[in-house]
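User: Sequence recovery, please. Input:
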């Protein structure tokens, strides 16, 4: 009886495999048969004009992002895409939408067959942007490091799988669901404050000498430390909770669910992220 059951299962599996093979496109099968083929590349280079205060959105990118900033109103987008085959490259697309007040770059998956959904590789992107300083930046769903120059605006990032570096920013700062270390220098603290939640990494928060803020940290698996002389740090009776008064107190810095340390350090004209 066991042999009969095994035989029936083998026949059924063979039938299912045949149906899947017939439903798969020739392109998919060629990809799996030629997975050792040379890499396929695509380069995207576009330019736009952005007005002061424009919003730049980056979403669903599979690779590193480097943003250089200047006083120019010109925005240059350079994206290098790399995949193991043309089929893999075509499996994802990069949509770019631009107006004077916004620039949106979004990676999206295209509909594919059975083999591609479960076994196919995906293209990766290396994104380099040259942007005006006077922008607000929003980044979500980036699978790679994010490096940003000086911004005269707010910064918001969520779902980043990599290290984040922001040379300088003003305005609201928000980081949520980050799997990597964060280094950010804030030239000025906005009234809406700083929000840090779900961070799996260390945080280096660089503040000006005259900063006045109150930090509250809950559920930390790490410590709050400071290199600033005008900071008082208290560890509450509850495990993983800290409070810190910076200067005379004021702007709220909220931290929740941090798996790492928070370091408060000074921001000077000569300081740089690499130090």
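Assistant: Recovered sequence (275 residues):
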């Amino acid at each position: 009886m066991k042999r009969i059951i095994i035989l029936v299962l083998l026949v059924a599996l063979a039938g299912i495999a045949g149906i899947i093979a017939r439903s798969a496109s020739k392109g998919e099968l060629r990809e799996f048969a030629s997975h050792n083929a040379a890499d396929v590349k695509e380069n995207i280079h576009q330019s736009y004009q952005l007005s002061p205060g424009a919003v730049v959105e980056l979403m669903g990118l599979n690779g590193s992002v480097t943003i250089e900033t200047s006083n120019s109103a010109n925005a240059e987008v350079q994206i290098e895409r790399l995949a193991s085959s043309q089929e893999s490259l075509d499996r994802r697309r990069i949509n770019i939408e631009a107006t004077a007040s916004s620039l949106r770059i979004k990676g999206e998956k295209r509909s594919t067959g059975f083999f591609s959904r479960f076994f196919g590789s995906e293209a990766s992107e290396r994104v380099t942007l040259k942007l005006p300083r006077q922008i607000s930046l929003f980044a979500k769903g980036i699978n790679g490091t994010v490096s940003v120059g000086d911004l005269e605006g707010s910064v918001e990032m969520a779902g980043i799988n990599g290290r984040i570096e922001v040379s300088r920013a003003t305005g609201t700062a928000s980081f949520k669901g980050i799997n990597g270390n964060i280094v950010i220098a804030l030239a000025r603290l906005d009234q809406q404050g700083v929000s840090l939640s779900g961070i799996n990494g260390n945080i280096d928060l660089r503040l000006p000498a005259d900063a006045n803020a109150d930090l509250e940290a809950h559920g930390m698996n790490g410590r709050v430390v400071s290199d600033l002389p005008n900071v008082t740090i208290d560890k509450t009776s509850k495990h993983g909770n800290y409070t810190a008064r910076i200067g005379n107190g004021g702007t709220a810095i909220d931290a929740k669910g941090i798996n790492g340390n928070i370091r408060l350090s000074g921001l000077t004209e000569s300081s740089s992220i690499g130090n």
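Residues 2-23 form the longest helix (22 residues).
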